[in-house]
């Protein structure tokens, strides 16, 4: 899981990053809202933790900016020293998914992060088959059944298909998919992912008459769309 930390206090970022990375998260920290928003246009995050009080652009303005971008925003945890009930209401009404007051006990913070992600994101089962329309994904055999016809895939192709189906409608960056499927591989080139995407699209016949289509989000990555809500491929480069 990948999380973005946005706080103008570098010390707070470092402490939070250490806590989350020890729990298995991958973190990217930012002290300037514009730097974070630039990164968000290129990367996919599973969670954003944002401070409220920052110079130039506060946390509520950042949340509003996220909601105005083409990529679907991940869960947002507002972390702030503002503790009045009216502040909590304002933060949640602005679009934050949860709210925690500084200084937070590390165990409580970690528990709230895990609870938020469980509540708002789909968790892939380790062994149970999952069904998406005509598609049934069976992790026990790395096999996808398309309308009851078995399609045998390589392990990497199957992992890629699972990530796409678990995030239907969500644009996933190339960096995010490379990390999820291949882990920390600095030598791995983007065309490796592109080749796997092409094979998955072909093997699974991801086309409108089967209920899903896999589109390129130019300059960013890929998005699997349900045909009922499908939209034309978008570009994040011009945002």
TrEMBL record:
Gene Ontology BP annotations: regulation of DNA-templated transcription
InterPro entries, alphabetized: CheY-like_superfamily, OmpR/PhoB-type_DNA-bd, Sig_transdc_resp-reg_C-effctor, Sig_transdc_resp-reg_receiver, WalR-like, WH-like_DNA-bd_sf
DNA-binding positions: 127-226
Residues in Response regulatory domain copies: 2-117
Domain OmpR/PhoB-type, first and last residues per copy: 127-226
Key words of the record: DNA-binding, Phosphoprotein, Two-component regulatory system
Molecular function GO labels: phosphorelay response regulator activity; transcription cis-regulatory region binding
GO CC annotations, alphabetized: cytosol; protein-DNA complex
Listed PROSITE patterns: OMPR_PHOB, RESPONSE_REGULATORY
Pfam families: Response_reg (PF00072), Trans_reg_C (PF00486)
4-aspartylphosphate: modified positions: 51
Record PANTHER family: PHOSPHATE REGULON TRANSCRIPTIONAL REGULATORY PROTEIN PHOB, REGULATOR OF RPOS
Protein name: Response regulator transcription factor
Organism: Caulobacter sp. 73W
